[in-house]
Amino acid sequence: MKKIKTYIPGLDEMLKGGILQGRNILLSGPCGSGKSTFAMQFIYNGVMKHGEAGLYVTLEESKEKLYDDMLQFGLDLKKAEQVGKFHLIGGPIASLKTYMEKVDANMTHIIKEIEDVIKEHKIKRVVVDSINLLTMLLKNDEERRKALASLCNSLSTLGCTTILTSETKEGSMDLSRYGIEEFIVDGVIVLYLVRQGSKFVPGITIRKMRGSDHDKEIRVFKITEKGIVVYPTETMFADI
Amino acid sequence: MKKIKTYIPGLDEMLKGGILQGRNILLSGPCGSGKSTFAMQFIYNGVMKHGEAGLYVTLEESKEKLYDDMLQFGLDLKKAEQVGKFHLIGGPIASLKTYMEKVDANMTHIIKEIEDVIKEHKIKRVVVDSINLLTMLLKNDEERRKALASLCNSLSTLGCTTILTSETKEGSMDLSRYGIEEFIVDGVIVLYLVRQGSKFVPGITIRKMRGSDHDKEIRVFKITEKGIVVYPTETMFADI
Amino acid sequence: MKKIKTYIPGLDEMLKGGILQGRNILLSGPCGSGKSTFAMQFIYNGVMKHGEAGLYVTLEESKEKLYDDMLQFGLDLKKAEQVGKFHLIGGPIASLKTYMEKVDANMTHIIKEIEDVIKEHKIKRVVVDSINLLTMLLKNDEERRKALASLCNSLSTLGCTTILTSETKEGSMDLSRYGIEEFIVDGVIVLYLVRQGSKFVPGITIRKMRGSDHDKEIRVFKITEKGIVVYPTETMFADI
Amino acid sequence: MKKIKTYIPGLDEMLKGGILQGRNILLSGPCGSGKSTFAMQFIYNGVMKHGEAGLYVTLEESKEKLYDDMLQFGLDLKKAEQVGKFHLIGGPIASLKTYMEKVDANMTHIIKEIEDVIKEHKIKRVVVDSINLLTMLLKNDEERRKALASLCNSLSTLGCTTILTSETKEGSMDLSRYGIEEFIVDGVIVLYLVRQGSKFVPGITIRKMRGSDHDKEIRVFKITEKGIVVYPTETMFADI
Amino acid sequence: MKKIKTYIPGLDEMLKGGILQGRNILLSGPCGSGKSTFAMQFIYNGVMKHGEAGLYVTLEESKEKLYDDMLQFGLDLKKAEQVGKFHLIGGPIASLKTYMEKVDANMTHIIKEIEDVIKEHKIKRVVVDSINLLTMLLKNDEERRKALASLCNSLSTLGCTTILTSETKEGSMDLSRYGIEEFIVDGVIVLYLVRQGSKFVPGITIRKMRGSDHDKEIRVFKITEKGIVVYPTETMFADI
Amino acid sequence: MKKIKTYIPGLDEMLKGGILQGRNILLSGPCGSGKSTFAMQFIYNGVMKHGEAGLYVTLEESKEKLYDDMLQFGLDLKKAEQVGKFHLIGGPIASLKTYMEKVDANMTHIIKEIEDVIKEHKIKRVVVDSINLLTMLLKNDEERRKALASLCNSLSTLGCTTILTSETKEGSMDLSRYGIEEFIVDGVIVLYLVRQGSKFVPGITIRKMRGSDHDKEIRVFKITEKGIVVYPTETMFADI
To answer: Which residues 166-185 of B are in CB contact (within 8 Å) with A?
Structure first.
């Protein structure tokens, strides 16, 4: 099976080569742990280093803010756009207010819109940031599970490798908001932000990765001016 | 009473010979603890080492992904299929999207479908992976309990030995999602994934096994390239 | 007041002679702690050692499985049946599927059925295994409490000494599922299964026993090939 | 203000003389901590040592069982009855089954019945054992609070000194089931049953006693063959 | 801004002079921590030492009981009444039973009644003991918040300095029952009752006091025969 | 991107220059941690030191109280008002009582009112104190999220830099009341109030700040007579 490199420094080593093509990965972590940066590096690196078309679906940020924010980590989305391979759903042309109401009307519309963009632009890498806001729109766990399974199945069938971000509750050990998201995906990567004294120390682990061997320890990462950098041989906690 | 060998290395020693024929076992564990691999080894070994027809019901993975994933552990499902004794419900012919809607319509349909496959192919070993998604479709604990009791009773009556997987909440001590699944089954095997420093260490214990003596300690297991291997004489924690 | 011997080795010593005749006892404990074995020993010993007719009501197991399972502990239910004093409600003649629907229809039916069997066969010892499944069928705490009070009152009036088993949530300190069952009964016996290192160690205590003095410490018990054996002078934890 | 002696050995010393006449006391504690014995001693001692008429309202036990149980502690209720000053609501003449249905119909009926007995027999001491079952019959906290306030007000107006028992959840720190009962009463006495090693050690404290000074430490008590005996100068835990 | 002295020994020192005139203070603490005594001292001292008219609204106690109870702490409410400056809402003229029903009918009635008494008697100090029972009457958090904001606004506009008592759940860290009461008030004073060994040790802290500097440590207080006495220079816990 | 100075001593150093213009910041902390003072300093400093028009929306305090309270910290709002650049929504002209009912009627009215004031007075800095009361008015998480996203989007589009205060539950680790507020904003600043012995020690950390590097430790701050002062090089806890 073919593996897709994330090109996030140190991560592909933990993944023993990358993510299996066509798989859905849940990226889980608390507020401010770097989920959006991680996810954007995955798309951006695909476009700039590999020539693979990427789609970033955001329900949290406007295009302007996102573009500004990512510059901080050397991710120049205007440049990626000019290459013709970076695509965004959720920006201000479809203004947030209007967009919300559309989503509200029918969940399948947003899946349809994603599918259309994928087919039209031959997208290979997809990010949905975050899955929390999508699932919040649905009435119950059964609805959430059906919508997520439908989305994931559709993305895999179209050959896309996908990262779905999930913000976890402060101080909890949950992997997702509703406790069902991790069933549907093929892999789970967890970002930690652990208080040690007065510091919040970031850590990363691969909790599940169907069909692929992977590192099983909690490793250190840093958010630098080049984005996320993983240290695949440094452990977060001393061993007992 | 006749015991069915799992052929999972080390496990039959913990089980003092295997699982009683016709019994239902709940296999409980957190995300990424190896439940699907464990369950597939049980089916695959039945087919390849014992010539027993097996049925794997999945509501989480497509056939393609499952086949790919299991190759990693030396479980060649295409080969098992060619032997004519490996059967799968939940694959892409009945596409996930369509399948979900059918399940939604009536829970008894899926039980009927399982019964039909069992009778037609003289299935001896069954896996339902996972029971979480089945129970999530039902409205309340009474409905869940009736459906599960009906399914388990039906499988036992048909002479099948069954493993039902149950994903537990991260960091909880629950044995199942709704806290009723463990009442209905004949046995409960628990997989642990305990953080020790920066490592996640896997452990296994037999928590209940009606009608059969069994090992009562938490033992070490590893997920190797040959699948799950249990170390039936090594304990997970030092004794107090 | 007359005390009924359980004949469970060591337990009658803890109970200072046995259970008061006509009383209802809640037997509480986690999954796999030996509640069914304990309860069946109480019935079986009554039949075989004391010539007292016994009734075992199960909503969890089929007759075949139950008979097979109990043989493991030297409890030969076929022999007890031939003596003419062992009775079972919940077996396969009233198949589980059908039975469930009948229960669903009206809770008072099952109480009526129990009363009829008691009167016809002059039952002296009754077990309901488990009470969880009965209470789960009812809509709210008030319904549950009324049904349980009605059942307990009816059994006491008929002169039966009763054990109601209650499976507690893994890792909780609850005595019952809804937190009301312990109000209605005359006594509460608790089975523990405490992890110590990699072992699960069984313990037993008498938490309440109206009208009767009793041992008040947590004692050790073992599940042997002769069933439950209590060590009434060994304490589970070292004293502080 | 006049104080009513409980005559429970050691308790009146903690209460600096007794309970203020006409007040409502909540007696809170877990299953098996001795609440019913405590409450019955209060009534029985009133009748036998002080010539005060007492009323015991039970929704948990039949008259026969209660009479039998209390004999164990030297409380001979038949004798108290013959004195003509011991009264019981909840016994088998109004059988439990029928009684429940009557309660169900209208909560004010039971308050009315209690008032009638108090007036007819010039009752001075009242016990309601337990308040949990009364409050469980009501729909929400507002209903519960109104019914309890109404009952307590009525009992105080009639000059009765009252003990309301409240069974607390195993292992919790709650003072009552719904967290409102303690607002309405004039005083709260708490019984503890604390595990120390393999023992359950009983303790007692006075948590609130409006209008009256009282001991503020957790004291030791024992359940002896003469009922509850409090050791008002022995503390339960070593001081820090 | 003018500060109102509480005249509770030691407290005005913690408050750096007293409470700002016209402000609403939440007095939070567990059962039996002395909230009513604290609140009554505030009213009584206003009347007797300062000649300020005071209103005490109680939904928990009858006038008779309250008068009796407060005598224990040297608070002679009959004398305060004779001075013509002490007023009470919630006593037996409007009997509790009737009163409850009136409240039930319309929450604005009770606010209106309080306003009328304030205007008629030129009340300067108000106590509502407790706010729990008022908020419990309302359907949801929005209703509760509106009613409380309306009450607090009305009292401030009329120039009254107010203490609202709030009973917190045993063993919790909550400041109020619904978690919204502390938003609406201008200040929060917390009473603690901390178990140390077998003793319950009282402590007091000022958690919030808009517009006014204040002591920020947990201080010791005692409930003496002269009521609450605060030790404003003694800390409750040793510093780390 | 342009950064807006808060002029709160020490904070701009933690923020590496200030807050990005046009961004929404959640200011989270428990009762009495100084959120309102912090937020008002942000507005006041903008007006007095930078000549930027500011809008303070309060749903908790009347204008009179707020003006009085802020004087304590040297924030003279009358003076700021005379400068013609300080604006307030929620004061007594639109009396609290009336205002609440208006809000109740339609959430979009309050957003509209804020937008009108911003446009008319060319507001650059906005505070909503607190967001808890706004979100409490809405029915469910989806409604809350839509209203917040709409408000934040509108404020960003109008070029305003905004602080939304959020009171967290005592003793919890939550960042907001409903656990969704932190998704919608661009940054999260957390105020702590940690008990150390008998003291409550204040601390501050920047948990998330999209598009901007920032200090990542928990720093000490004090509430002085000049308002909040941050010590950007002192850590709150000793490092492990």
So the answer is: 167, 169-171
Model ipTM? 0.90
Mutation pick from C24, C207, C233 vs chain D, by most beta carbons of D within 10 Å, is C207
d(CA A167, CA C213): 55
B149: helix, coil or strand?
Answer: helix
Q: Which two tokens stand for residue A90?
A: 């959720």
CA atoms within 13 A on the CB side of B185: 29
Which chain B residues in 197-226 lie under 8 Å from chain A, judged by CB atoms?
197-200, 225
Q: How many CB atoms lie within 10 A of CB C179?
A: 18
Residue C14 phi/psi, 5-degree rounding, is: -60, -35
Helix (H, G, I), strand (E, B) or coil at E93: coil
Residue the block writes with tokens 């030396």: B74
Q: Does D95 touch chain C (CB under 8 A)?
A: yes
Q: Contact B61/A180, CB-based, under 8 Å?
A: no
Residue type, F19: I
For the whole prediction, is pTM greater than 0.95?
Answer: no
Question: What does the pLDDT look like over E52-109, one tens digit per residue?
Answer: 999 999 977 889 999 999 999 999 999 999 999 999 997 543 344 444 455 444 567 7
- Other Cβ atoms less than 10 A from the Cβ of E168: the count is 24
CA–CA separation, D179 vs D209, rounded Å?
A: 18
Q: What is the 3-state secondary structure (H, E, C) of chain A?
A: CCEECCCCCCHHHHCCCCEECCCEEEEEECCCCCHHHHHHHHHHHHHHHHCCCEEEEECCCCHHHHHHHHHCCCCCHHHHHHHCCEEEECCCCCCHHHHHHHHHHCHHHHHHHHHHHHHHHCCCEEEEECHHHHHHCCCCHHHHHHHHHHHHHHHHHCCCEEEEEEECCCCCCCCCCCCCHHHHCCEEEEEEEEEECCEEEEEEEEEEECCCCCCCECEEEEEECCEEEEEEEEECCCCC
Shortest alpha-carbon distance between residue C69 and chain B (Å): 4
Give the pair of three-digit tokens for residue D193: 């049953």
Peptide bond preceding A95: is omega within 30 degrees of 0, i.e. cis?
no
Task: Please report which helix (H) or strand (E) contains residue F104, including its range.
Answer: helix F96-105
Q: Report pLDDT digits (tens) over F184-240.
A: 899 999 999 988 889 999 999 999 999 999 999 999 999 999 999 999 999 988 754
3-state secondary structure of D187: strand
Give φ, ψ of F166 to 5 degrees. -140, 115
Q: How many other CB atoms are found less than 10 A from the CB of residue A123?
A: 25
Rg of chain A in Å (alpha carbons): 17
DSSP class of B49: H
Q: Of D96, D95, D92, D56, whose CA–CA distance to D77 is shortest?
A: D56
